[in-house]
């Protein structure tokens, strides 16, 4: 009987922790160009892998660039000044384990870029993004702690690219702590009654 109650409490706790996931949704295209951003809504952004600034330099919002099809677009770029020169990697770090991560992306340059989803230092998903593509992309993995957008040039001939919008679900650490404490209290009270 005790095992059934603890199992039920664990199931309820898991459901609650998933329901307590805080949705994050950022549209970078609405911000002024050339604005440096290092963190927002529990996310940290940095340009890595060379370029004009040291690793960890805040990413900058690109000015509206003209697309090859006559459109214009902006977003969070792999640049520290919103223009050339650039670093090859735009790093996005979550403050928890993210799921349902989706984004829009513009390869302002003329070559493809790839995105890696990491959990800690382990790559859990990789996807290739074509040129001048603004379609929404979704990462199917959960437990994502970091996204790395990489134009794969190793610091040579880098082109500018930009993330137009980003959304994800990230459980709030306080909610997870409360669920864990509630489950521990339930187990302790049941054990004490026995």
Describe the protein:
With 194 residues, this protein is an alpha+beta fold. Helix content is 20%, strand content 45%. It is built from two helices and twelve strands. Strands 1, 2, 3, 4, 5, 6, 7, 8, 9, 10, 11 and 12 form a twelve-stranded antiparallel β-sheet that branches. The termini are close together.
Task: Give the arrangement of secondary structure elements.
Layout: H1 2-19, E1 21-27, E2 36-37, E3 39-40, E4 43-48, E5 59-66, E6 72-77, E7 89-107, E8 113-119, E9 122-129, E10 136-139, E11 144-150, E12 161-171, H2 173-193
Antiparallel strand pairs: 1-12, 2-5, 3-4, 4-7, 5-6, 6-12, 7-10, 7-11, 7-12, 8-9, 8-11
Strand content: 35-45%
**Mean pLDDT level:** 74
Rg of Cα set: 20 Å
Helix content: 10-25%
Low-confidence runs? 66-71
The general outline is elongated
Order of helices and strands: HEEEEEEEEEEEEH
Sheet with the most strands, sense and barrel status: 12 strands, antiparallel
The end-to-end distance, rounded to whole angstroms, is: 11 Å
Question: What is the number of strand segments?
Answer: 12
- Supply the number of helical segments: 2
Category from helices, strands and their pairing = alpha+beta
